[in-house]
Amino acid sequence: QVQPVESGGGLVQAGGSLRLSCVASGGTFGIYDVGWFRQAPGKERELLAGISWAQDTYYADGVKGRFTISRVNANKAVYLQMNSLKPEDTARYYCAQKRRTGSRDDPAFWDGWGQGTQVTVSS
Rounded mean pLDDT of 93-119? Predict the structure, then answer.
């Protein structure tokens, strides 16, 4: 089973940028959507962006225009370019695959969660 491995998080000032990577360990992401989520302390995990095998993308309203998701053709990595970061973007960021039918906004229908990578945006 493919296990996503996230990296690229860190500490950045407000207005800065980070590029997160999600690499498929043990295989490829196949035909499944891959999504980026985040979870801040005391808050629910939320979908930020997703990309299909056919490169169709979708974003949460709060990150449209600031975040860009991409998927390499070799299907082993998905990236999240984050620009104009805000303190409220501080959270742990995760990637996952959507192998089951169901609402894409519900983390329960996503699988293969990685350990996440911490993003901290200072004001």
Answer: 94
